[in-house]
Write a structure and sequence with these properties.
The complex is a heterodimer of chains A (245) and B (218). Chain A is of the alpha/beta class. In chain A, 37% of the residues lie in helices and 24% in strands. Chain A has nine helices and ten strands. With 218 residues, chain B is mainly alpha-helical. Chain B has one domain: Orthogonal Bundle (MetI-like fold). Classes of the chains: A alpha/beta (245), B mainly alpha (218). At the A-B interface, α2, β6, α3 and α5 of A face α5 and α6 of B.
Chain lengths: 245, 218
């Protein structure tokens, strides 16, 4: 018997007012898989990602994370979230806390880690993202690329089973995109389950195990990067790729 | 006109006693009003109608009616209803605190809602509960932005506390009224009172300016 997918999305609908953003979306992600979601702006890809950790609530459908439903009443949503890291386009670091405290806050408050243990963990994660010397700095003094790497370290400090990335490089100056992607590549190589919304097609091709192309709230096509980028089956996929590649 | 400093000097002990009570009443009203105001602001921001409606009504009532009227209602109605008789100081503190809570509630709400939504989302994505998010992420950032507005509110409250002379709470204004009654003179008692209020509000604004610079709770 094979293990169930770590993320299961079935028939999810989501609308904001009269505007339908997700139409009957179903997708599964296996443990250790890196899934990249691409598509034009407004295609619903960020909304799909935000639904995965409950930042948005779909009107109907089912979302299961590690075999636990996210949408039933009284779902242990904070518990599910604590095992799922999220990295935002705008970093969303806590400006009133220094880098170290940004990383240790949730492990201490949510995982109830000893502060000393949390600091040790934070320092090792800062080493991993190459920012050990920034531990005492405040977010305002970091460059975009550094801020995003701290945000990744902050999410990793919860020792999540899944990492969600919502356009992590879209707000960065071009010369800083590489340093963030390098950290993400390393995570993927370690076997982290990742769902990434991005416009970095080269990265999608190199790191993704599977690519989903979304448009108008639907998954139009999915497949391995080779298949999707080199032999797209759908006209809409071809039209999109011809614009961005 | 001859300005009689000598009667001011005679009254200094009583004026200072009154000023001390003004400070005491204002300080207690500020503390109680700020605590109650925080609860009211949470109520008003709640998506649950049975929390948001009453708190919203509370704010409308206390901001939309004169403090003068509120003091009388509290003094002759509310306080006797709870303790059987009335007490000017208790009524003064209660009325000012209830009034101040309505204003501070809106200061809290504006401060909290001024914090970027991404902060809440980041905290939630780390598994923090609503309470933890409020305590560790939102309030520490919001409080800094609220300090100037709180400063204004506190200064208004110190000045408004003069209205409780109406119910004979023996604070600064009460004693300057007594002074006018004794000497049948207006300039000395009221200018003395005005001067003391000015010292109080000026010191308070300096203190708040210093707190703002220090970045309290930073």
């Amino acid at each position: 018997m094979t293990a169930r997918p770590i993320i299961e999305v079935k028939g999810v609908h989501k609308s904001f007012g009269a505007n339908t953003v997700l139409k009957d979306v179903s997708v599964q992600v296996e443990q250790g898989e890196v899934v990249v979601v691409i598509g034009p702006s407004g295609s619903g890809k960020s909304t799909l990602l935000r639904c995965l950790n409950g930042l948005e609530k779909p009107e109907s459908g089912e979302i299961r994370i590690e075999d636990r439903s996210l949408l039933v009443a009284g779902a242990a949503i904070t518990q599910i979230r604590s095992r799922m890291g999220m990295v935002f386009q705008q970093f969303n670091l806590f400006p009133h806390l220094n880098v170290l405290r940004n990383i240790t806050l949730a492990p201490v408050q949510v995982r109830k880690l000893e502060p000393a243990k949390a600091e040790e963990l934070a320092m090792s994660l800062l080493g991993k993202v190459g920012l050990s010397e920034k531990a005492g700095h405040y977010p305002a003094s970091l460059s975009g690329g550094q801020a995003q790497r701290v945000a990744i370290a902050r999410a990793l400090a919860m020792e999540p089973h899944i990492m969600l990335f919502d356009e992590p490089t879209s707000a960065l100056d071009p010369e800083m995109v590489g340093e963030v992607l390098a950290v993400m590549k390393e995570l993927a190589a370690e076997g982290m389950t990742m769902v990434i919304v991005t416009h970095e097609m080269g990265f999608a091709r190199e790191v993704g195990h599977r690519v989903l192309f979304m448009e108008q709230g639907m998954i139009v096509e999915e497949g391995t990067p080779q298949k999707l980028f080199d032999e797209p089956q759908q006209e809409r996929t071809r039209a999109f790729l011809s614009k961005v590649l | 006109m001859h300005f009689r400093f000598d009667i001011i000097v005679d009254y200094i002990p009583l004026l200072l006693k009154g000023a001390a009570l003004t400070i005491g009443i204002s300080a207690l009203a500020i503390v109680l009003g700020s605590i109650l105001g925080l609860a009211v602001s949470f109520g008003k921001m709640s998506p649950r109608w049975y929390l948001s409606w009453p708190t919203s009504g509370y704010i409308h009532f206390f901001r939309g009616t004169p403090l003068y009227v509120q003091i009388l209602i509290v003094h002759f109605g509310l306080v006797p209803a709870f303790i059987g008789h009335t007490d000017a100081v208790i009524a003064a503190i209660t009325a000012l605190a209830l009034n101040s809570a309505a204003y501070t509630a809106e200061i809290y709400r504006a401060g909290i809602q001024s914090i970027d939504k991404g902060q809440t989302e980041a905290a939630q994505s780390l598994g923090m509960t609503g309470m933890q998010t409020m305590r560790f992420i939102i309030l520490p950032q919001a409080v800094k932005r609220m300090i100037p507005a709180f400063g204004n509110e506190f200064i208004v409250l110190v000045k408004d506390s003069s209205l409780v002379a109406l119910i004979a709470a023996p604070e600064l204004m009460y004693w300057s009224n007594v002074m006018r009654g004794q000497y049948l003179r207006v300039w000395e008692p009221y200018l003395a009172a005005a001067f003391i209020y000015l010292i109080l509000t000026y010191s308070l604004s300096k203190l708040l300016g210093w707190m703002e610079k220090k970045g309290v709770a930073g």
